[in-house]
Recover the amino acids of this structure.
């Protein structure tokens, strides 16, 4: 449970809403836990035929809570469960994205089966800016979708992709007016909910190399964990908290 994740289930559609708009929907461990529980539970819940994920407020999500990155922290890291659930859930996943989708906000889209973008949507994967490495198998999936050089610019420099490019490059289905975003995603989810679920699940399974993806996630997670405690990353997190540019030249 998390007060910042709203969950509703009606007409076969499970809707997950990131709802922490004052912090740009930055994702905390509790929020990942609630999302992971909902995704994992969806496979065993016959009332769920399709899942929709979206964010409340101006932007989809600012990605992982940087304060929690900085704090490290013991205990379960629900993010690992969340990204694994994204890669393994059987039922179709639809995303509706307005404004920025930062970090895991972008990498989670690589696991969605249908992505609708508002015209102001921007996909950003600034892992190296934070002295980290990509996660959620994005270092495998993003280059395979959009090519190495585009993916490298996104990862290495945090270069944003606008909504039109995201569609042209195969990361999303369509761009709609911001006011039409939720209705458009819901309409598509309703169409999916009317389809034969067994055939949908079998088709999704055929389309995804789940074992390769989860194995790649494990390799990334190891490097991500090592980077999190590096002096470079500590400087990046401090700079974010102090609202200044990081100085990475002090590190060899
Ligand atoms: N983690 C924690 N808090 C975050 C956050 C994050 N990822 N992103 C935004 N916030 C907080 C800000 O600290 C600020 O909190 P405050 O009001 O208590 O000072 C609040 O959300 C509003 O953010 P702000 O930066 O003022 O909004 P903005 O519209 O100017 O910029 C972003 C929005 C998303 C561009 C900017 O917040 C940002 O770059 N965030 C970090 C993104 C990031 O690096 N995520 C990790 C990716 S791996």
């Amino acid at each position: 449970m998390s007060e910042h994740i709203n969950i509703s289930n009606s007409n076969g559609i499970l809707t997950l809403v990131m709802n922490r708009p004052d912090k740009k929907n930055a994702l905390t461990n509790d929020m990942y836990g609630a999302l992971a529980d909902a995704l994992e539970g969806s496979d065993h819940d016959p009332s769920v035929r399709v899942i929709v994920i979206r964010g409340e407020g101006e932007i989809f999500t600012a990605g992982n809570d940087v304060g929690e990155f900085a704090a490290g922290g013991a205990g379960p890291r629900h993010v690992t469960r969340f990204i694994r659930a994204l890669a393994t859930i059987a039922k179709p996943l639809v995303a509706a994205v307005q404004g920025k989708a930062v970090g895991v906000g972008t990498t989670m889209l690589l696991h969605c089966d249908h992505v609708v973008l508002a015209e102001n949507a921007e996909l950003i994967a600034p892992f190296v800016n934070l002295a980290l490495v990509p996660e959620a198998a994005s270092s495998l999936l993003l280059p395979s979708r959009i090519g190495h050089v585009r993916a490298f610019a996104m990862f290495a420099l945090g270069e944003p992709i606008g909504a039109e490019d995201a569609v042209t490059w195969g990361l999303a289905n369509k761009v709609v007016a911001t006011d039409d975003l939720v209705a458009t995603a819901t309409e598509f989810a309703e169409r999916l909910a009317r389809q034969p679920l067994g055939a949908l699940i079998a088709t999704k399974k055929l389309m995804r190399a789940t074992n390769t993806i989860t194995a790649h996630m494990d390799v990334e997670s190891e490097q991500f964990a090592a980077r999190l405690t590096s002096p470079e990353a500590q400087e990046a997190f401090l700079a974010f908290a102090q609202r200044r540019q990081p100085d990475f030249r002090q590190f060899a």
